[in-house]
Amino acid sequence: MHMHKLEKVWLIIGVITLIAFLTTVGIQAFASGHAPPSDLTKVDPEKVDETPPFNEPGLKKVGENEYELVMVLQSFGFTPNKVEIPHGSTVKFIVTSKDVVHGFEIAGTRVNMMVTPGHVNSMTYTFEEKGEYLILCNEYCGIGHHMMSAELEVK
Amino acid sequence: MNRLDSRLSLAHFYVAFAAIGVGGLFGLFQTLVRSEMITLPSSINYYQILTAHGVLMALVFTTFFIYGFLYSSIVRTTGPFTSGRRKVAWIGFISMAIGTATAVIMILLNKATVLYTFYAPLEAHPLFYIALALLVVGTYFGAFAIFGQYRQWRKEHQGEKTPLLAFMAVATLVLWLIATIGVVLTVVLQFIPWSLGISETINITLSRTLFWYFGHPLVYFWLLPAYMAWYVIVPKIIGGKIFSDSLVRLAFLLFILFSIPVGFHHQLLEPGISEGWKFVQVVLTFAVIIPSLMTAFSLFATFEMRGRRLGGKRLFGWFKKLPWKDVRFFAPFMGMLIFIPAGAGGIINASNQLNQIIHNTIWVTGHFHLTVGATVALTFFGISYWLIPHLKGRKLTKKMNGIALYQTVIWIVGMFVMSGAMHYSGLLGNPRRTQVTNYGDHAVASAWGPYETAMAIGGSLLFISLVLYLILMINLAFFAPKGQEEFPVGVEADQSLKHPAILENWKVWVGIAFALILFAYTIPVIDIIQNAPPGSKGFKFW
C-alpha cells in the first residue's frame, strides 16, 4: 500500500512516543506502586454490619503515623461521617457499600475509588497538609446523592 | 435521490431533531439547577431530566442521525434500496421508535431514574430495559439492509473498489454490531430477568463490564460517521481530493480492532478487576491513537494541497484560502479542530493512574461534551445543512448559510465556556451527575461556585444555538426555495493507486477483532463470574 513519506515519519514518531508513554505508565503503576485501586476482597452486601472490619467502622491506629479508616457507604451517607486525622499520617481507606454503587472521593486529592456492593475497595494516602477535607460520593446513587458527604479534618 | 429512500432517511432525521430539541432543553435546565439559579418544580427531579438528557442525546439523537446519514450515503453510492431491504429498514425504524418512545415515557413517569448508563443495582421498571433492547434490535434490521446493498454492489462490480462511503458505512455498522453484543447480553440476560423478578439478584461487576465493553466503542460509533464526512465529503466541498483511499479504509479497520477490547479503562478505579488486566486494556486503548494520527495527517494534507492550489504560499498561507464562509466546511472543520484538545483529554482519562484525579468528576462530562457534543455534533450540523435540503429537493440559500455560520459560532463559544469550566472545576474535585454541589457550604465546595455559573452561561449559549439550528432545519425541510442541493462525494487524488484486496476481506478483520476481544476479556470475565460475591437485589432510591 502506498504511503506518503512524511506520513511514515509522522506515524513512526507517534508510535515511538506512544511506546515511551505506555512504558512510563507501566513503570509507575507496577514498579512505583501507583496502580489504581483494584481490591479483590469480597463481602456479602447484606451482611456488611456483621463482617469484620465493617462491624466496627472508624479510624484505627495500626502503627507509627499509620492508620486504617474503615467506612461503610449507603444511600445517602458515610459511616463514620466525621473523622480527625493527625497531620502527616498515612491512612489506608477500606470501604464498601451496603446497597448501590457509590464513589469515594476526597476532593482535591488523588483519593478516588469506585465502591461497588459485594466488593471491598481500598487505597492509601498520606496527608501532608492540614485542613478541612471533603469526602463525597461521586457516583449517582439516588435522589439524595448530592447530600452524601463526610468531613475529614487533618490537624 | 429517489423519493422512497429520502423518506426513510428523513424519518430518522426528524426523530433525531426532536430528541436533540428536548434533550437540549433538559441540558439547559441542568446547568441552571446546578448553578442554583432555578429549582425544578416538585413534580420532576434533577436526576430524571439528567437521565432523559443522556438517553435522548447520547443514544437517540446520535443513533437516529447516524442511520439517516448512513442510509442516504449507501443509496447515494450504490443506488436505490431494493423494496425488500427498504421494508427491513422501516421495520428497524419502527422498532427503534417504539423503543425510544417507551424509554422516554418511563423516564418521564419517574420509573427509570437510573441515568443513561443504568448501573445496577439501581433498578428501573422492566419496560425501560425492554425499550432499550428494542432500540438496539431495531438498528440490526437497518444494518442488514445496508450490508445487503453493499454485498449486491460487490457482486455486480467484481474486481472494482467499492465506493468509499459505502465501505465506511459498513465498517461503522460492523463496529456497532460487535459492540452491542455486550449491552444486549447484559440487558437480556441480566437486567430484564432481574427487573421482572425472575432472577433475584444481579452480578454487579459483570453488568458493568458488559456495559463498558459496549460503552467505549459506542463513542466510535458516533465518531466514524463524522469521519465519513471529514474524509469523503469535506474534500469535495472545498474542491479538493481525498488524500488516500486505502489509508482511509485501513484507519476504519483499525478503529474496529482497537475500540472494543478496551472497556476496562472506564472501570480503572473499580474493585474486583485485577490491575494487570486493566493495564492490558489501557495499552490496547492507546493503540487507537495510530488511526487517529493517520486521520489528522490525511485531512490536513487534503486541506494544504487544496489551499496551495488556490495560491496559498509559505508555511501556513494555504490556511487562509479555505472556504471559511461555507458552513458545510466551517462546521465540520471546527469539529475537527476541537477534536485535538478533546482527544488529548481522552488520553488523560485512559492513563491508568492519571484517571484517579478526574474519574467521576465533571472533567469527564466536559470531555465528552467536547468529543460528542462539539466534534460529532458540529460535524452532524454541517452534514444536515446540505443533506436535509438535498433530500427535500430544496436549496441552502446564502442567507441560511449566513445564519448557520452564526449558529455554529455560538455553539462553539457555548461549548468552550461550559466545557472549559467543567474541565477546570473537575480538576478541583467537582463531581459529575450531582444536582447541587455546595455540601453544606463546605469551603472546598464553595470554590466550585463560579465554575457552575460559567457552565450555566455556556449552557444558555448552547441552547440559543440549538434553537437557531432547529429553526434552520425546519426552514430547510419545508420552506427553503426548491432546487437541487448537492450531496458532495469526493474522489481520490491519485486514482491509479492499487487497492490491496485484504482491505475488503471482512472475515480477516472481524476475525482479528474477535481474537483481540477474547484475549482482553476471556480470563477476567471468567474470573468475574467464578469469583463473584453474592449478587445484589434491586434498589429504587428516587
UniProtKB/TrEMBL annotation, chain A:
Q: Where in the cell is it found?
A: Cell envelope
**Cited CDD domains:** ba3_CcO_II_C
- Which Pfam families does the record associate with it? COX2 (PF00116)
Q: Where is this region: Disordered?
A: 36-56
Instruction: Please provide the record's keywords in A-Z order.
Output: Copper, Membrane, Metal-binding, Transmembrane, Transmembrane helix
Keyword set includes DNA-binding: no
Parts of the chain that traverse the membrane: 9-31
Record domain Cytochrome oxidase subunit II copper A binding: where: 49-155
SUPFAM superfamilies listed in its UniProt record: Cupredoxins (SSF49503)
Q: Where is the composition biased (Basic and acidic residues)?
A: 41-50
One GO CC term, this protein: cell envelope
User: What Gene Ontology terms describe what this protein does at the molecular function level?
Assistant: copper ion binding; cytochrome-c oxidase activity
The record lists the catalysed reaction(s) as: 4 Fe(II)-[cytochrome c] + O2 + 8 H(+)(in) = 4 Fe(III)-[cytochrome c] + 2 H2O + 4 H(+)(out)
Role: Subunits I and II form the functional core of the enzyme complex. Electrons originating in cytochrome c are transferred via heme a and Cu(A) to the binuclear center formed by heme a3 and Cu(B).
**The protein, known as:** Cytochrome aa3 subunit 2
Q: Which organism is it from?
A: Tenuibacillus multivorans
From TrEMBL, chain B:
Q: Where are the transmembrane segments?
A: 12-33, 45-67, 88-109, 129-150, 162-192, 212-234, 246-264, 279-303, 329-348, 368-388, 400-424, 454-478, 508-529
Just give the chief location class: membrane
Question: Family, per the entry?
Answer: Belongs to the heme-copper respiratory oxidase family.
Keyword match Heme: yes
Top-level division of the source organism's lineage: Bacteria
The family database entries (InterPro entries) matched by this protein are listed as: Ba3-like_Oxidase_I, Cyt_c_oxase-like_su1_dom, Cyt_c_oxase-like_su1_sf, Cyt_C_Oxase_1, Cyt_c_Oxase_su1_BS
* Signal peptide location: none
* Mode of membrane association: Multi-pass membrane protein
Q: Which residues form the Cytochrome oxidase subunit I profile domain?
A: 1-474
Q: What is this protein called?
A: Cytochrome c oxidase subunit 1
Q: Which GO terms describe its biological process?
A: aerobic respiration
- A Gene Ontology cellular-component term: membrane
Give a single Pfam family match: COX1
Query: Where is the protein found, in the record's own terms?
Result: Membrane
**Entry keyword set:** Electron transport, Heme, Iron, Membrane, Metal-binding, Respiratory chain, Transmembrane, Transmembrane helix, Transport
Supply the Gene3D superfamilies for this chain: Cytochrome c oxidase-like, subunit I domain
Molecular-function GO terms, alphabetical: cytochrome-c oxidase activity; heme binding
Q: Does the keyword Electron transport apply?
A: yes
